[in-house]
Design brief:
Layout lengths: L7 H14 L13 H21 L2 H7 L1 H7 E3 L13 H11 L4 H9 L6 E3 L1 E3 L5 E3 L22 H7 L11 H10 L1 H10 L1 E2 L7 E3 L5 H6 L14 E6 L23 E6 L2 H39 L6 H22 L5 H12 L12 H56 L21 H21 L2 H30 L8 H16 L10 H25 L5 H16 L3 H7 L2
Antiparallel strand pairs: 1-2, 3-4, 5-6, 6-7, 7-8
Helix pairs in contact: 1-2, 11-12, 11-14, 12-13, 13-14, 14-16, 15-16, 16-17, 17-18
């Protein structure tokens, strides 16, 4: 079961309620209480002080250097007025935030900082409403170290996925989890600062890298990212439910837009992130179909009520109209009840208010019912308008990830070709620097092992050790075949994303072709490297089992339910093979 994140306001609320139950009042004399009550209240007050300490961001300013922080940055929550700008309070803060261009510094804060703790570089303004931030040309390279991260906004799952925390011992201790999250903030900042965008100028997709010397210098004594996270993907998307599930700030036309709230997902490989974009596309497609159907039915019912509900309408016809409208309203509410998107929540609330075709006083009121239905339709239309650009972002992400996958696969394929060519004449060295372009998981595993073997091969070639030359070429060839199988498995996973439309014959042909290529002994067919033979044979049998199973499926006319079962079986079968673990374990 996933851990439930808890916020500081929730902890303060619980603590306040416990103090009230204990009879505590701020001005009371604790010495006048019984020893038991005094101990109870003292314990609660100490817990409150500890929560306040955890919620404070002072330690982050101290780590940056308080005087330097005050000189270079300003916290938006402290700004209410500006001598040149007409906006005040929250509107002014949102205006200033929107004046700062999109950058990693800004996106990181939208992920992990409360809006009141957002910081911007020191700035000047003029009568025309211009805002000039100090050091504007360097905004894209601003360090994340001065950011005032709120520990309760860091999801436990993200930290566990990144390997920064495990929370195993603190599973039920929310305060201890917050302590761990606070302690890991410098490491999280360093990891994020070292990550590299997969698309220039955009920060939706980041690849985790080893920190450069420059980044490490900003975080002295801070451990780098776990090795298991290198090459993995951070994927940012807007949080439709609002920060921590809270309602999004209201926005009025002609007012500055409020800060956006983002969520970060971690993917263990570029393949997994790529699959996510296809899943997201299908989610949008299903939602468009569902909401379009709902909108049209509501509009039709609204028109029917407007045309047919009259004072002269017979009681029996009114009863029929009422039943049809109530059935439609209930069906729409059932579809919307679990939604988190603000527009769909608002539509659901509007429909719930007239579920019995009555107004707030409980009287049957068709005019109010129709008005609420129109309001719900308008909210659904707003959701459509919101979805269109998101669908575009998703498609853009899909293309970025697709390009990265193809580039990495091509680099490894070309290197494997060089290995195969040396099977005919193992007299020329290989160039390990060809693998330097490999930066993403899971390709890093294969590139790392190939680089090791490449150095061994080149050394053996220079020493005239022909047996070592041949054995190492075979080892590299087998590692390359494992990587080809990994690519095959990813294609099969791609084919099975939609259980209702699994192209069994196409998958079968694909697997069969790969099986033939995998089984072919293309270099030194009479030579066996024992330590590599057993894992090679196991994977070869796996491809055969997969091929045989797909052949049986292709011969049958499977209905949707049986295709869903096939999907589950394929998914479980492919998940059982951790090919990277096999390659890591090879000698």
């Amino acid at each position: 079961m996933p851990l439930k994140s808890i916020t500081f306001p929730e902890l303060f609320s619980r603590n306040t309620a416990a103090l009230e139950r204990a009879g505590y009042r701020p001005a009371m004399d604790l010495e006048a209480l019984s020893a038991r009550n005094r101990h109870r209240i003292s314990t609660l007050l100490a817990a409150r002080a500890h929560i306040e300490d955890l919620a404070s961001t002072d330690d982050q300013r101290e780590a940056y250097g308080r005087q330097r922080w005050e000189r270079e940055f300003v916290r938006l929550g402290t700004i209410d007025r500006d001598q040149h700008l007409r906006s005040e309070g929250e509107s002014l803060r949102w205006y200033l935030w929107n004046r700062m261009q999109s950058c990693r510094f800004k996106r990181f804060q939208e992920l992990f900082c409360l809006p009141a703790n957002f910081i911007v570089p020191r700035f000047t303004t003029d009568e025309r409403g211009n805002v000039d931030f100090d050091g504007k040309p360097q905004v894209q390279s601003l360090s994340l170290k001065p950011c005032l991260v709120n520990p309760d906004l860091i999801p436990e799952k993200l930290l566990m996925d990144l390997g920064l925390c495990d929370f195993e011992e603190e599973n039920g201790n929310t305060v201890r989890r917050l302590e761990q999250k606070r302690d890991v903030i410098p490491r999280l900042k360093q990891l994020w600062e070292a990550a590299v965008p997969l698309q220039k100028g955009h920060h939706r997709l980041l690849a985790i890298r080893e920190p450069s010397a420059e980044v490490r210098a900003r975080y002295p004594g801070i451990e780098g990212p776990p090795s298991s996270s290198l090459g993995t993907i951070l994927y940012m998307r807007e949080d439709e439910s609002g920060r921590n599930g809270a309602a999004k700030p209201a926005w009025k036309p002609r007012e500055p837009r409020p800060p956006r709230s983002f969520q970060a997902q971690h993917f263990s490989s570029v393949y997994a992130a790529h699959r996510k974009t296809f899943h997201e596309s299908r989610v949008y497609e299903r939602e468009i179909d569902q909401l379009t159907d709902m909108k049209e039915h509501l509009a039709s019912m609204n028109g029917t009520l407007d045309a047919e509900w009259r004072t002269t309408t017979t009681a029996s016809h009114k009863a029929s109209l009422r039943a049809r409208a109530q059935e439609l309203l209930q069906r729409c509410r059932d579809l919307l009840s679990a939604c988190e998107n603000r527009y769909k929540v608002q539509a659901c609330d509007l429909l719930a208010a007239v579920s019995n075709l009555t107004d707030s006083s409980g009287r049957e009121n068709i005019s109010v019912t129709m008005s609420k239905m129109v309001g719900a339709i308008n909210r659904l239309m707003q959701r459509f308008e919101e979805m269109f650009p998101k669908g575009g972002y998703n498609q853009q992400d899909q293309m970025v990830l697709q390009r990265q996958i193809r580039e990495h696969e091509t680099v490894l394929k070309m290197f494997r070709r060089g290995v195969t060519e040396r099977g005919d004449d193992p007299s020329s060295p290989l160039r390990p620097e060809e693998l330097d372009r490999i930066r993403l998981a899971p390709f890093l595993v294969y590139a790392g092992r190939l680089r090791e073997k490449c150095e061994t091969y080149n050394d053996a070639l220079g020493n005239g050790n022909r047996d070592m030359v041949i054995d190492t070429l075979i080892q590299m060839h087998v590692i390359g075949k494992f990587q080809a199988v990994r690519t095959c498995f990813e294609h099969v996973k791609q084919f099975t994303l939609d259980p209702a439309h699994i192209p069994v014959q196409r998958i079968r042909d694909f697997v069969r072709t790969l099986r033939e290529l995998f089984s072919a002994r293309q270099i030194f067919p009479d030579r066996v490297v024992e330590a590599y033979q057993a894992p090679f044979d196991r994977l070869e049998r796996s491809l055969q089992i997969l091929d045989d199973g797909l052949s049986r499926c292709a011969e049958q006319d499977r209905d949707i339910s049986r295709r869903s079962a096939l999907y589950r079986h394929l998914k479980e079968y492919l998940a059982a093979y951790d090919i990277e673990a096999i390659v890591r374990a090879l000698p």
